[in-house]
Amino acid sequence: MAVLAWVAGPTGDFLREMFLPGGPQNIYGYRNPDVGLLIADLQREPDQSRRLELLRQAERLILTDAPVVPLVYYRVP
């Protein structure tokens, strides 16, 4: 168990950093090729509504796999 926090921006870069093999914040060794494909698509997609849908799809897969279990969620206003 560890305490870890991160700040997510609209680019989706946090997904690449945290959930791709070799990502600097992927300290738990998470690996899912489908998530990798979605993140790659996200990095190339210019349309914001499509980017949001790709983020949602990747998030659903990651949450289903549950490589981390968030105990606290907070938002900075």
Task: Summarize the SSE layout with pairings.
Layout: H1 13-19, H2 33-44, H3 48-65
Describe, in plain words, how this protein is organized in 3D.
- The structure is a single chain.
- This protein is mainly α and 77 residues long.
- The protein has helices at residues 13-19, 33-44, 48-65.
- Helices cover 48% and strands 0% of the residues.
- The radius of gyration is 12 Å and the shape is globular.
Note the run of SSEs as H and E.
HHH
Reported for the largest beta sheet, the result is: none
Please report which band the strand proportion falls in: under 5%, 5-15%, 15-25%, 25-35%, 35-45% or over 45%.
Answer: under 5%
The radius of gyration over CA amounts to 12 Å
Query: So how many helices?
Result: 3
Q: Total number of β-strand segments?
A: 0
How would you describe the shape? globular
Summarize model confidence as the mean pLDDT: 84
Rounded to the nearest angstrom, the distance between the terminal CA atoms is 28 Å
State the helical fraction: 40-55%
Flag low-confidence runs. none
* Computed structural class: mainly alpha
